[in-house]
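Practice problem: GDSL-like Lipase/Acylhydrolase
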Amino acid sequence: MKKDLLKRFVSTAMVSVMMCSVLPIGASAAANDDTMIVVSLGDSYSSGEGIPEFYGQNKSWEQKIYDEDWLAHRSTKSWPGMLEIPNISGKMKDYNIKQTNSNKCKWYFGAVSGAETRHFKKERQVKKTYKRLSLFKTLKTTYYMPKQLDVFNKVSGDVDYVTLTVGGNDVKFEDIITTCATGSTYLHFGSDKLKIEKMMDDLWASFDTTRANIKGVYTDIQSKAGSQANIIVAGYPKLLDKEGKGVLISEKEATIVNQNVTKFNKAIKSIVNECRNQGMNIHFVDVEAEFDKDGGHQAYSDNAWINNIILLKQSEDLDQSGVGSAYSVHPNEEGAKAYARCVNAKIKEIENAKNKKNTVSKRSLNTAPVIEEAVIEETVTAPVVTDIVTTFTEAQIAMTETTAAETEDTTVIADETNIAEDVLVEEAG
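Answer key — structure tokens:
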């Protein structure tokens, strides 16, 4: 009898220890803090440049030139705002932290049109506005945007996802398109080498620096967001119709641009893979295939998901002087939807993997008591266990005999409690 009681006593203690080790650190906190937190950073391809309406645009010009959302050209129709998380109703735009306060989900939108890698941690991005309000009055301002990683100082809780596009401005996408669209594109009379080809040569000659800067952004984000955060890096679509249908873009120029976009995406993917191999929780999402469907949806195509080059200033352009709109060669609303489809597929894949992992963990937890009982049955008479048993006093054994039923009941309750915690962890994951 005493031997059986001691076996039960030791078994209960070992099961309790094992169950504590099965539960992840912070499981109790995770069960109580299940708010989904998503942070969207990056450049104009994430902010939604070229897709009005922008947050803050309905304010007067004198007011919105100090509105960071409008200065960043963060669109109400951007693809980050269309993201969906399984088991969270609605889209991220429904949980914009500046417009609603939900305990279910919080979305922090920090992407800025024109952002380069240096604007994440090193420098504040400068936004200049210019508009003639009347014959005698011109409003000209300079505004310094916060560094993008500063957004994490406002986040309360564990970040689940960070999405971004970055690097396009570092490799001068805008300058490349401008070169294609303006003036003679040849280096000099009689040359068969285009100016754009020289620009591409220069781009790749200095790409080691750009590569290091892009990787630095990824590692800085993981450091700020935490190792639990899934970083999703989206690539860029080919920009121009392969036939060069626009009067400003030749077929040869379109081919050069598109080939180098593909090359750039491969470089981004290789950086992401390198980071993954080093233990980072980061994923690459290719969008080229989505934009290439049905013959292609590039700028100047018959069913374009990317804006053509727009020569006239649009009403929401920050700088109303000169020619050419910032909307040019950016995804339109359909393009944003295409981005969202690609990134949503990746999020679903990640969430399914997490659910599968939680299910395996739950099964392990449910079978743990049986495994431990079997171990105790085999080892209770072993010398090391006997040594432990001999340290118990007769009084302790007598106390154990009188509380045997209570011990059994407590063990069951503990098992159920831990299982319940695991279910909460699964739901919170």
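Discussion: Residues 2-24+361-428 form one domain. Students who identified this feature from the tokens alone can consider the problem solved.
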